[in-house]
Amino acid sequence: MAFEPKSSNLTLPVLPLDGEVVLPGMVVPLDLTDGEVRAAVEAAQAAHSGSATGKPRVLLVPRVDGKYAAVGALGTVEQVGRLSDGDPGAVIKGRSRVRIGSGTTGPGAALWVEGTLVEEPAPQEAPGTVADLMKEYKALATSWLRKRGAWQVVDRVQQIDDLGQLADNSGYSPFLSVEQRVELLETADPVARLKLATQWLRDHLAEQDVAETIRKDVQEGMEKQQREFLLRQQLEAVRKELAELNGDPDNETDDYRARVESADLPEKVREAALKEVEKLERSSDASPEGSWIRTWLDTVLELPWNTTTEDTYDVAGARAVLDADHSGLSDVKERITEYLAVRKRRADRGLGVVGGRRGGAVLALVGPPGVGKTSLGESVARAMGRKFVRVALGGVRDEAEIRGHRRTYVGALPGRIVRAIKEAGSMNPVVLLDEVDKVGSDYRGDPAAALLEVLDPAQNHTFRDHYLEVELDLSDVVFLATANVLEAIPEPLLDRMELVRLDGYTEDEKVVIARDHLLPRQLERAGLAADEVSLDEEALRRLAGEYTREAGVRNLERTVARILRKVAARHELGDQELPFAVGADDLRALIGRPHHVPEAAQDPEERRTAVPGVATGLAVTGAGGDVLYIEASLADPETGGSGLQLTGQLGDVMKESAQIALSFLRSRGAELELPVGDLKERGVHLHVPAGAVPKDGPSAGVTMTTALASLLSGRRVRTDVAMTGEVSLTGRVLPIGGVKQKLLAAHRAGITTVVIPKRNEADLDDVPAEVLDVLDVHPVSDVRQVLKLALEPAEADTSAEEFPIAA
Ligand SMILES: Nc1ncnc2c1ncn2[C@@H]1O[C@H](COP(=O)(O)OP(=O)(O)OP(=O)(O)O)[C@@H](O)[C@H]1O
After folding, report:
1. Cys-Cys crosslink for 544: which of 348, 510, 529, 796, Cβ 3.0 to 4.6 Å?
2. Which residues form the Lon proteolytic domain (predicted)?
């Protein structure tokens, strides 16, 4: 080996060290009451007596579990006397390593052993490495010693400049185990020894860091608990003081018990409520639970558990009420009357509500805004002598809106159904579920599913609101629903409903409604007497036709209100004598020019269809029927490219209609003598204003085909013609929906000729006679018939010949 130690032999008494290790350089006190220790020291003293130099020498050998280590330390007995506790003791200093050899007993009681002195080998590493190692150890030791506040020791360690000595000094570290210290003793190479010491010190420091963090955390936790406890104590004290000031603190909970006991509650509800009162009595006033319980009890106590109103109607009386509240709508009123009659008969015989799929337990009023759906609901309640509540469902996406939040939620509320019952103050009101077509569903559950349960007669006598948690009997409630768009009603809901359609009013009907209902109501609102201001029929007609254009009468009512306010203001300012009969010609002075002049009444050059490539279509939107214009243009052959471009927010179905129109003209255009070559080479652009309104559906097919044919032929589309119908690839015109609404819209817009699919002819029965009287309706089965009808003859200079149509 490179550093085989030079050695010399010596024979010395063994001083066994149990659980302790003395490294060279260490000075330790030893207790001489221990027999073995005393024997060794005495043997050493005896052997030394007489010699003038040196000190008595012993061999300090660690003993772990009764076994001696292989290496010990030569120790000198520095001093013998009394230890601080008064026992006899000796101070021993470690000197150098000794490898233990064989042993014998005697002289004296001690064990004598032959040992070999281990010389420390010189370090093999470069001096720089050794210096770095020493520096690192010193730094670590310093930080550890500082933490313990051992400042004097820091200096001593810093001053050690011998490598082996520095390593041996770590034998003082209290955190080292006996085994670790024995290892230090047995490691003769000083570099290896210091590396060991450094590693162990580093580990210990890291452990300490973790322990420190944990200790801190624990301490902080304790402090928080203590503070909370203290605050609670103070709170309790403050509460007590307050209670003494205000009298008996238990009054409030007593009050709830009395209220529950005296309230007219169904047995099950009373039980549940009393349970909550008990919880309330047990909880402290300040706990959040207490306030939840109080809110819940308030809700339960406010519900009209055993209150029902008496139905006062006979069917004839109910019909009279409906007639009095609304003009026209005879089929709707008839339907409602039938519903009431059946309901009444079944009630008289003690039978329940008719239920099940398509059972018609719920009447759904479907139609555009302002046609009187909500007010019909109110009329139904009035006709039956019941309370009326409206539940707005538009935009409801959260199931909890219908069924309530669980009480564990912060700020939990009962759902809208429970709130409606509370608002009605009776268990059998008429509840209008407004805008069922606008409930959506998302991750918060499906409100439609909850509604289904509400509407199902088989389930709704035990309706459970998440918040209320007690069952509520909804079987006596009359549910009505309203919707703008039939298609948007969730399918399962639709299944439970009996549909009643309100498609909108004709101008004549609007005039009657305005005269009999809107005007009297608005007169009263404006503080005017019926004999002070009147609007003649011609004025009302112009309001309905030119100042407003809608399926319902909401804007008409607003406009009437505006006129009456103007008149009232002028009168107050002294500018207007009363009575005043407002005629059609006075309107302009009062509310300005009309916004909706019919196309046909426009200057011919101003009309939408003044150029080839624009056709008038008919559509149904959420606001009722409407006319729309479809525009077509050909792209520049140089830059425009080919293909079909569509704009105006068209849905997929409408886009397909455009493709079909294009394909039809490409394949059949030649036989219609259209220059279809253009279609093949140049791109086509179709646009449907208003660009910002989304549109969809197949019924614009004929209109798109007509617009394209008009563009290619250069023949304009007749301004007085509007059309609707789906087109197949072969040019057949297929049936569509919403004929009544579309015809009403055409009539409103001043159109006189309407093209509809032949297979929709039966729908004309629903259209009011006064509309059919003025409209020239053409049922067609082939798109060529449409073109023949709708396109104006070619300009004189192009050609005078008739457009050849193969019908
Ligand atoms: N046939 C009618 N006779 C008398 N008044 C009517 C008639 N139709 C509608 N009205 C009146 O028009 C106004 C608008 O009606 P309502 O608010 O009920 O419309 P709606 O169809 O419920 O609309 P929305 O879908 O926007 O709720 C109400 O004041 C209503 O009384």
Report:
1. 510
2. 609-793
